[in-house]
Amino acid sequence: MTSTLSDTLSDSPSDTKPEAAVETQAVPYAELLARARGLHEQLRDWRRTIHRHPELSFTEHHTAGLVNATLAGLGIPTETEVAKTGVVGHIRGGDGPVVGLRADMDALPILEANAVEYASTRPGIMHACGHDAHTAMLLGAATILKQLADEGRLPGTIRLLFQPSEEAQDAEGKSGGMRMVEEGALAGVDAVFGLHVDGAHDVGVLATREGPMMAAADQFHLTIRGSGGHAARPHATVDPIVLAGHAILAIQQVVSRRLNPLEAGVITIGMIHGGTADNIIPDTVKLGGTIRSFTPESRELLHSELRRACGVVEALGGAFDLEIRWGYPPTSNSPEATAVAREAMAQLVGPARIKEADQGMGAEDFSFMAQAAPGCFLRLGVHNPAWGDTQYMVHRADFQLDEDALPYGAAALAAAALTWMAQKRG
Predict the structure, then answer these.
(1) Residue 242: is it exposed, middle or buried by C-beta count within 10 angstroms (0-12/13-18/19+)?
(2) Which residues does the annotation mark as catalytic?
(3) Is the pLDDT of residue 418 over 80?
């Protein structure tokens, strides 16, 4: 039976495992990897089960049920329906730091193109971003860390954050990460770690970087209003399609001419809708897109200059409505948590396999958790070297990963948590 989130958070770690019962020793990196490799078949089965039954954002009921049942079977207390469909678990060790480990659970609205026996059974929905693997790897880390806790070798508390809806926001503009933070799932957490599969790196490679790693992502919706009529009488209209053409050109000059060339930014128009027939000039055209940036200053500038660029519509006799929806902030890794993660990963797989992650314009709502506590987000290589130059990247219908990467991810999460605990206990 699960307790409420507030009840569980009010308990101190020492309520269930006194400090005296915990050994003080170095982090057993080789043992962590060996235990994770011993779970390889189970990790694969978890991942494939989730892959067969993908669920869109805030509908992850089957996945959450699997997670909750697995944690219960391990003797890990949980709360369910956190952030609507999330699960939070607690592994209590000694009276040391509380470390959060996060995995996202939702899938994407993509029709899978892979002819594998564990392919999606839900047409039009696919785990094309690796969240099935993320969930399986966190279950693996939970298994290992619970074993250590039962052996009196966990010098702190683990907060397991199985998060819904990383890929989308609900009607209130909130994602699973946003809601988890709002509902207190990060309360009392001293550090938080997460990871994401990366088809650009080989299995066994881990990458991260200090500071901004992924961009802020905001949405905009632009409605251009003119005056429609017969296509043979354009002079009697204010053609919103022509106005949209001018607006698109003006918007595409914001980054190149208004943003400092030493700053990174993107404005992409990904949607345009207008008209119903080839001989009718419509009254309105609607456009939608995304704004990406790394700093608060760049973010504000891109918003204001986008609005200014849309003013060309008014100069040409039309009108416009622009809605900008603030989304995820930049995913920025804390220097302290990043140093801990790098040390843990180097000990786990060797320094040669630790890479400096590139900055990317993709976005992640792990960013909200990294604002609530010192955080570090990792990239986990899932490319099979035998595939050569062929890379199966996320958000594609043919996305796939080498499942030999799963033990590395499970061990990496456990190692990051234990290294933080070891350093903070001194």
Answers:
(1) middle
(2) 328, 403
(3) yes
